[in-house]
Amino acid sequence: MTYLEPAPIKDKENPLESMMSRFDAAVKILGISDEMYNILKVPARQVIVGLPVTMDNGKIEVFEGYRVIHSTILGPGKGGIRLDPDVTLDEVRALAAWMTWKCAVVDIPYGGAKGGIACNPRNMSAGEIERLMRAYTLSMLDIFGPDKDIPAPDMGTGPREMAWLMDEYSKAKGMTVQAVVTGKPLVLGGSLGRTEATGRGVMVSALSGMEKLKLNPYRATAAVQGFGNVGSHAAALLHEKGVSITGISDISGAYFNDKGIDIDKAMAYRNANNGTLEGFGGAEKIDAEELLFLPVDLLVPAAKEDVITKNNAGKIQAKLIVEGANGPTSAKADDIINEKGIMVVPDILANAGGVTVSYFEWVQNRIGYKWTLDRINRRSDRAMKDAFNNVFDISQKHKVPMRLAAYILAIDKVSSSYKFRGGYG
Ligand SMILES: NC(=O)C1=CN([C@@H]2O[C@H](COP(=O)(O)OP(=O)(O)OC[C@H]3O[C@@H](n4cnc5c(N)ncnc54)[C@H](O)[C@@H]3O)[C@@H](O)[C@H]2O)C=CC1
Ligand SMILES: O=C(O)CCC(=O)C(=O)O
């Protein structure tokens, strides 16, 4: 095993292995050279930092932080920062590569990057998280930059963390630099629509998939795993389009109501309840994994990676899976899902609404102007719909599932851009 190979993780599928197996399959169809294969496989930069933070009890704890820039062929690195106890370098490497493919699929001028800090934000005070984010930013001063690498929110982070990052970076540079990060609060140069953007893109992808499958949204049912930024907004927007959301879940468990869950009520409950659905009364509590197997038309995994595996994929009843999370389906489950004839709108397409509006935020910061919500929604809906149609056409042309088609589109774009830049061949 070389340092490039994913480390085997006992009893858990490695997201880097999942990413690489799809990458390999797409490369085979595209027939790219071995040299290009290695250029696209090896991350451009991988940084690991130790972050000493004074905790509220006065003791110093050291956290490990990562930033991986997978590629800058199409533009500066772009991708979120996640705070999660399970973060590993391999996970961040997979997530960074997914960002490269995602930005190519939605045709925005960015490469791919991702960051993570191994910590449990649920057990930390706001002050501890702030000190951690500031320490992380300081150690990434040479990495981040509006033309180099632009972070954003991911699991466990949101506008508050992005504000601290912008502030720390700006202080170090001696000037306010809004465009160094996206997903900021509105008053600091954030964009209208960014908070809901990923969920909105999931909704557009789901409606596009339903159209192909001839499913009427007003008669359709859905289950949504994860009720954070992506899952809750996806559920609310799908509900607005007529879909009955019969199952939702978060870290506290899963909740089912065959008459449909009142999503506004669930969001209000979560907001007033420390961010979780624990004790939510608008539905019956069911086994957490059962949510994936509910008799629904649409399943939206929007929590974390590797929740649909070879061990449980056979039990899924949905006709359409729209991946709000990054890497929710392990590569080993792909064949089972394809054999069942389930249409999958893959993560690198379905959740690209977030980075698309992040791009709009960065553009607005750079031109010093604010766009209306209507303009942002129209443009991001168009970008998502176009990307869906492009991926669908490739899937028809090569007779492959949507996931492989999205990789084919992305890898073709990034590899031909590399050749045109003249650095190869
Ligand atoms: N925030 C964004 O704009 C984007 C996020 N994503 C991806 O979407 C996924 C979710 O991200 P966010 O919504 O931002 O995170 P978040 O931190 O706002 O929410 C995560 C949600 O998942 C729940 N959860 C955690 N473990 C769970 C489990 N085992 N079963 C069920 N629910 C569980 C949490 O309780 C929470 O409700 C991640 O994979 C992230 O990488 C992708 C594109 C953009
Ligand atoms: O908004 C962004 O720049 C990136 C969001 C992200 O991390 C993702 O799409 O996975």
From TrEMBL:
Source domain of life: Bacteria
Stored CDD domains: NAD_bind_1_Glu_DH (cd01076)
InterPro entries, sorted: Aminoacid_DH-like_N_sf, Glu/Leu/Phe/Val/Trp_DH, Glu/Leu/Phe/Val/Trp_DH_C, Glu/Leu/Phe/Val/Trp_DH_dimer, Glu/Leu/Phe/Val_DH_AS, Glu_DH, NAD(P)-bd_dom_sf, NAD_bind_Glu_DH
Record-listed NAD(+) binding positions: T198, N229
GO biological process: L-glutamate catabolic process
Keywords: NAD, Nucleotide-binding, Oxidoreductase
Active site as annotated: K114 (proton donor)
Record-listed substrate binding positions: K78, K102, S358
All residue ranges annotated as the Glutamate/phenylalanine/leucine/valine/L-tryptophan dehydrogenase C-terminal domain in the record: 191-422
Site (Important for catalysis): residue numbering on this chain: D154
PROSITE patterns assigned to the protein according to its UniProt record, in alphabetical order: GLFV_DEHYDROGENASE
GO molecular-function terms, A-Z: glutamate dehydrogenase (NAD+) activity; nucleotide binding
Pfam families in alphabetical order: ELFV_dehydrog, ELFV_dehydrog_N
Record family assignment: Belongs to the Glu/Leu/Phe/Val dehydrogenases family.
The protein's name: Glutamate dehydrogenase
